DNA sequence: TAGTCTGCTGAACATGCGTTCAGTCGAACC
DNA sequence: GGTTCGACTGAACGCATGTTCAGCAGACTA
């Protein structure tokens, strides 16, 4: 009888919600290695209470994942319309102060490889497929031979680059996701746009050759 | 007086080298959280000896980093010529059996964000700049307004995507880097080639607008 | 008032970690 | 042979962690 209750809509009164929020924040800022004691202290609570409400640290994380997933779904329902290029998604996502811990948590999750990360990526890829379809229909985007593969590739490379950049030199303030994304785009937006509008290779040779050899489809 | 000696050229006789190699392998396969005891057991040695040779676990890792960096420089000196597109680099790198732990270690290092990762990325970006220059000169590659930024972007997004893919669903055999890269390219090579030769956006509008607003050059 | 139940505490436990250290072994030197 | 020195062992230390548990306080019910 300890499933996720619909408590704490707006006020973070209950200790349970306080613990959950503290955990999300700590996990986002310093990773999942954060100790239960630290989270408890943040929430102004004893370590024992954490185990009382969630059965274990993994239980805590599971509930955080679940809560974040619900939050993300809600945010996405609000932000139905996104520019065709799809990159401003980050800007919008990170700019809202409320969302900062959410994105931070998701990025940590990606570094860690949990199920939340898989789910989140799947959502983003689905979205990207949708935007690509609209973009192609509107004539704004070049069609692909495999829209799903392209959407996945674009999503993974964008997120992967951002993640890698963050890991290589971590931001001074891990909470300022907007600043992080801004810093990332400051150096990456130009080459990205160049690549998207002018391409990289001058000849079709490599692509055509690959397409010829393609029928030997090997596995998934 | 405990700097890196030029010992153990070919034979892994000395316990010191055995520990180092075991550490590299464990670090590559299961990350830097591996315990000293496990590494010692792999090398058929007591935990104490690890501390005797390297002063601490960090000392061990530092020496691994240094050793890997030297190895990478050597490998690169051998592989001077790489295709213009630059992606086959992984294939070549990963295909050599000898290099598998090297790439694995480097990838782990990137997940972790150590100085080795920074150095390695810097090398790759430098290389990419060189290849791009050659490619542009030969007319095979579209020139960029900022070759350094493009090289960095392409490197980070390729590596980031590979890393993210690996984190999201880890390979059954983390040692089989060639298989991992093959699996990655199986789904990503087509969209990558499409993007490189046909682009993504049909209109120059977004790029041109960005270029107009650019003169407020912020940073490098 | 007595009983009970729930949120909650904080000391204690068990475990695994990096690290230390007293001491053994064997070879090299005088 | 005696001495010294470096490689090496393995038990032990100190610490941080996740987790447990006996018990407390206060608000309900009867």
TrEMBL record, chains A, B:
Signal peptide: none annotated. It holds the Pfam family TetR_C_25. One of its GO terms (molecular function) is DNA-binding transcription factor activity. Residues 35-54 bind DNA. PROSITE patterns: HTH_TETR_2. SUPFAM superfamilies: Homeodomain-like (SSF46689), Tetracyclin repressor-like, C-terminal domain (SSF48498). Keywords: DNA-binding. It comes from the Bacteria. Residues 13-72 form the HTH tetR-type domain. This is Transcriptional regulator, TetR family. The lineage of its organism: Bacteria, Bacillati, Actinomycetota, Actinomycetes, Micrococcales.
């Amino acid at each position: 009888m300890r499933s996720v209750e619909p408590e704490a809509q707006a006020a973070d009164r209950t200790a349970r919600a306080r613990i959950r929020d503290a955990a999300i924040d700590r996990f986002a800022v310093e990773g999942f290695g954060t100790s239960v004691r630290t989270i408890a202290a943040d929430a102004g609570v004893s370590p024992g209470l954490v185990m009382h409400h969630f059965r274990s640290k993994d239980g805590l994380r599971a509930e955080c994942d679940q809560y974040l997933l619900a939050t993300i779904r809600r945010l996405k329902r609000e932000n139905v319309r996104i520019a065709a290029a799809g990159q401003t998604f980050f800007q919008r996502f990170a700019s809202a102060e409320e969302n900062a811990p959410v994105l931070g948590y998701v990025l940590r999750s990606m570094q860690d490889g949990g199920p939340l990360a898989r789910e989140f990526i799947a959502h983003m890829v689905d979205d990207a497929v949708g935007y690509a379809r609209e973009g192609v229909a509107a004539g704004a985007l070049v069609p692909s031979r495999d829209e799903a593969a392209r959407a996945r590739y674009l999503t993974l490379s964008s997120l992967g680059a951002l993640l890698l950049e963050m890991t290589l030199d971590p931001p001074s303030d891990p909470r300022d996701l907007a600043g992080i994304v801004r810093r990332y785009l400051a150096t990456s937006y130009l080459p990205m746009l160049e690549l998207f509008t002018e391409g990289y290779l001058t000849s079709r040779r490599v692509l055509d050759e690959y397409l010829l050899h393609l029928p030997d489809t090997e596995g998934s």
